[in-house]
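Attaching the record inline, Q. Sequence:
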Amino acid sequence: MKAIEVSHLIKEFGPLTALNDISFSVSEGETFGFLGPNGAGKTTTIRILTGVSRPTSGTATIFGHDIERDTIAARQSMGIVSENSNVYDDLTAWQNMIFSAELYQVGRKEREKKTNELLKKFELYERRNDKAHGFSKGMKRRLTLAMGLVNSPRLLFLDEPTSGLDVQSNLIIRDVVADLVKEHVTVFLTTHNIEEANIMCDRVAIINKGNIVAIDAPESLKKTIQSVQSIEISFDYNSADQLEELSRLSMVNEAQKAGDKFKLYTEDPSEVINAVMAYAHAHNLKILSITTLGPSLEDVFIKLTGLQRTGEKIHAID
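Structure, as predicted:
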């Protein structure tokens, strides 16, 4: 049985089509990433899958339960962690957990056991009697995730789980998700952090303008655009003109500055390496490092969505 089965889902808001006939499935125990730019349809999809919003047409099932016709049964097997922490500031960490357990109709004995267990797992037990208004953003995010797990869900919806968090909270959340996977919990993850999806997800769906443009394992997606290869190089001396000069080298499609390095996108890495060596010699530069890179998941995302890279960059001039 599939954890999630979506068939020909359409969602319209007046003249706007937010979801345009999308279909996909998520296997039980799979960590499934849902990537897309703002306004792509990620939130609309989650709202439908969690029973908050109704589709215009099409169907969605959770462990075989139709989310429209059998909403209660479908929602009993899921935990939901929204992008914004739904913590009550005037309640303690313990009270927030117990309240969440009551909403999920977890029995008294079990909810106290789960609350103890989860607060320890998320390193919040020592602060269990403190009101949440004094918690940092990372602590609130961890508490939100703990609240979403209090009913021991078979399926967990995670909306931007590590957005803007400190390193400690980020690592704790990733470790907990890894533990959930070992317990065969299905995780549906939406994120803007493409590297996070690359590390955590078995498969990734990329959605853009209401359409799913690709679904596959991260490594398989990278192989679909082998033409987007790159050379990463650093010199012993950097100048303001280097980015533009490198962008004009033979076979360079795009040049981008990345910290103290330059990233040159090309379909012919060997040709570009020869050009870079000649450039360094002509300008009396010492090459400190040079690396050939295959396409990244970010490259796939940009190519399939048509987005532009952010940061300092320049396109090669034909």
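Residues 167-182 form the longest helix (16 residues). DSSP finds eleven helices and 15 strands in the chain.

More tomorrow.
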